[in-house]
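[agent] plan:
  1. take the single chain provided in the ticket
  2. run structure prediction with default settings
  3. attach C-alpha cells to the ticket
  4. add a short note for the reviewer (M.T.)
[agent] executing step 1
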Amino acid sequence: MGTLFIMSACGEGPDPSGLTTANQKNLTGVSANGTPMTQADLDKAKTSEPFAYNLALMVDENRLGINYTWTLVTGYLVMFMQAGFALVETGLCRAKNAGHTMAMNFMVYGLGMLGYFIAGFAFQFGGIGLVGVPNLGGLGALTNELSVNIGGHNWGLIGYKGFFLSDGTYDVGVAVMFLFQMVFMDTTATIPTGAMAERWKWSAFCVYALFVSTLVYPVFGNWAWGGGWLSQLGNIGLGKGYIDFAGSGVVHAVGGWCALAGAIVIGPRLGKFNRDGSANTIPGHNMVLALTGCFILAFGWFGFNPGSTLGAAANGNLRIGLVAVDTMLAGAFGSIASMIYTWVTGAKKPDIGMMGNGLLAGLVAITAPSGYVSPLAACIIGAVAGVNVVFFAGVIEKVFKIDDPVGAIAVHGVNGCWGQLSVGLFADGLANYGGLQVKGLFFGDPGQLVAQIIGAVVCFVYVFGISWIFFTLYKRFFALRVSAETELQGLDIPEMGSLGYNPDAEFYTPDGTPDISLAGGVGGSE
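[agent] step 2 finished; step 3 output follows
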C-alpha cells in the first residue's frame, strides 16, 4: 500500500548575493591523502589550519564560478537554437505563411518563458534540492516534492517550490538552473509549431504555449530530471533508473508526441490528401533558409548536450569534449544516412530537406546517450536515426494520413524515442557521466534497457494523452484552426496583419491584394 505525502526540507536557504553558496558542505568527500574528508575533519581544519581551510573554500567558489559560467554560456547557445527552428520551419512552409510561421517561433520564446516562470519550473525542479545538484552548489533552496512511498522508497511525482522564482528561491544557483532549463523547455514548445504550421489559429497557439510550458513539459521533466519516480527505477533493480542525459525524451520526444496529437486533431492542410487517400507534395518555399536553420541548430547543440553536465570542473565534467564529439558525429552520420537512403529509394535522388532532417534526427537521437556512449556507438545511433526519419516520415504521411509540413514528428518524436532506447543498448559503463557506470544491454545490463523502455512508454502515453485532450477540448469550444478562406489566402495578412515577404509594400492594399493603381502609373509600357 502506497502512502502519498509531501517531501520537504529546510535546505541551506537562498543566496541571492552569491557570497555563501561556496561552503564547507561542498568539500566533504574531497580526498586528503587518499582519504575522503568528513565534516569532523573540516570542522577541525577550520580552527587548526584556517589558511588551508579558507583556501579550500576559495577553490570551491572558483569551481562553482566555472560551472555557473559554463552552464550559462551553453544556455545562451541553446537559446539561439530558436533562430534555427524559425528558419527551418519557415523555409519548409510556403511563402504565404512565412510571417505567421516565423512569428510562432518568435513568440513561443516569451509565452513559454512566462508559463515556465509562473509554475513550470516549480513543478519540474521544486524538489531537486532533495537529490542535490553539486555542480551548481546543491540547489538546497528547492526542497519541496509531492511523492508517494511504495516499498520503502519515495517516488517523486511533482515539485511545488519556485513559483515565480520566489518563495525562498531567490538564489544564484537556482537562477542558473532556471535559465538553462527554460531554454530547454522552449525547444520542446517550438516543435509542434512546425507540425501544425499553415493552419493553426494564432490565438490557439498562444494558449498552447502556456499549456505546454506550465504542465506538459514540466511534469515528465520532473519524473526524469527533477528527482521523480522514473529516475528512481534503479531502486527496483532496473539499471541506474531512467537515464536521459540531455533530453532525447524530456525535450524532443515530449515535443514530438505533443506535435503528433496536435497534427491529428487539427487535421491536414487543404489539398494535402486526395479523395483516394494519396498524398500530394506541398514543397517548402526556401530550402536555403531551411538548411541554414539546420546548421544553426547543430551549432546550438554543442550547448545542448555538453552543457547538460551543468559544469566544466570536477565530478567527471571533463567529459564535455567526448560529449561534444559524440554529438557532432551522430549529426553527421544522420545526414549521410538520410541522403543515401533517399538517393537509393523513391526518386533516386538525394532529398535536400531530408538531408537537413537527417542531421537533426541524428542530433536528437544522441541527446540522451551522449554522456554514456563511445564515438563509434554515436555514429551507429546517428545513422539509424537518419534512416528512421525518412522511413517514418513516409509512414506518418502515407499510412496514417497525418500532415506534418516539416517532419517534426519523425525527427523529434520517433528519434527522441530511439535516443531513449539507445541508452539501454549502447551505454558502455566506461564513457559515463558522473560516475554512474551506466551499462546497456550490449554491455551486460538488460535492466537498463527495461528502464529506458518504461521511460519511453510513459513519455508517449502521458504526453500524447494530455496533449490530445487539450487540443480536442480547445477545438470543441474554441477555434483551433483558421478558416478555409484564410488558409487558401495564406495566414500572414489575416492572422498577423503583414506579409512575411513584402518587398513592394506600396503596391499592396491593406489586405495583401496587389493593386497596380497604387504605383501611380509610373513606369511600365505606357
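[agent] step 4 note for reviewer: The chain is about 55% helix and 5% strand.
[agent] ticket updated
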